[in-house]
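### Sample
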Amino acid sequence: MYQQTERTTASRGRNRMDYQQATAHEILDEAYHCALAFTVDGEPRVLPTLHVRVGETVYLHGSTGSRPLLAARGPAGLPVCLSVTLLDGLVYGRSQFHHSANYRSVIAHGTAHLVTDEAEKQAAMTALVERVGRGRAAQSRPPTRKELAETAVLALPLREVSVRARVGPVVDEPEDYALPYWAGVVPLRTVPGPPEPDAGVSAPIPDYLRPPRSPWHTPATMTGTHVRLEPLDPAHTDELHQATDDEEVWRHLAHPRPRHRDELAAIVAEALRAHHTGQRVPWVQRCTRTGEIVGSTSYYEIDEPRRAVSIGHTFLGRAHWRTGINTEAKLLLLTRAFEELGAERVAWHTDIRNIRSQRAIERLGAQREGVLRRHRQRPDGSWRDTVLYAMTADEWPKAQITLQEMLRRTAPEAR
């Protein structure tokens, strides 16, 4: 519990105040943005910055030439006020007076000092890097001595600390309840989007930037004799384009043939956005014999409560048709669906014009269930009828034997 002081005691709305250390720590650790207020030459200043809490100290960093850090050099330090706020929702009242916001905020008063101990400074910098991604410090270059010399770190002890929060519904006047206006709360939250690699990056997206998923939405790596399925990543774009740059590969797909690498990069980015929103689980197909990326495939229409999933968005370089790669990829995907995820149903959708795909799906042991008329629009603008196939859990054991036999014979590939 933080001791109340004159500066941390509210004059209004005291029911919204909290002085518990655990509550303050939770907000400080969740929020990414804070504002540091101070005065320089009698003038107020506010500096938006990143922060990290280590125990009962908040560290902030900046240039050694910045005003607050220059002012903090003296033995007296720099009097500051630190504010960290999480906006949780917008509150819409029936009256304009009762519009508000749900939020959680921490205010800390105190004197910040420049960190001069090299070990403490290095530890604070590492903590700041880990703050934006656990494991990031080990996957980035440490600062040089010159960079450390150009960087100043401020330490603010957490002593005068208060938490203020507003939670809950609208608080309207009783006489306004009958007004014909919508009222309620619109929740807000900070959600990371799909990582966007910088130009020239060939390293895969690290695990700490991938959101936690249920097994149904996790592109687990799977390895067979012919193919290895790995999570799709922007770093695969060049190899994927080289392997699938063929008009026949894209003939019946949702996208026209990419004319150059950047168009395929956009398709990869679209797949990763769909994965980020839970609509798709994309893999690349890597040939185990050569180690090359040769195609891609996905789960989609994932319905975990009903234990159903579809397999599709598949494209494979023509040089690797009829080699066992795609047949084994289907075996791996079906095995994961039925035996690891406990699926009751796996479905396929294919263009009614794509006879080769239909025959291949039928060879897997899937049943044709019907035609969805004018189901999707083709890249040329025409409307396609889609043939729907599915396999159920009770049909899987026989289909598994069929697939294994197909692989032994290296039968024609399924698309």
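Residues 411-415 have pLDDT under 50 and may be disordered. This sample (RimJ/RimL family protein N-acetyltransferase) is used throughout the tutorial notebook.
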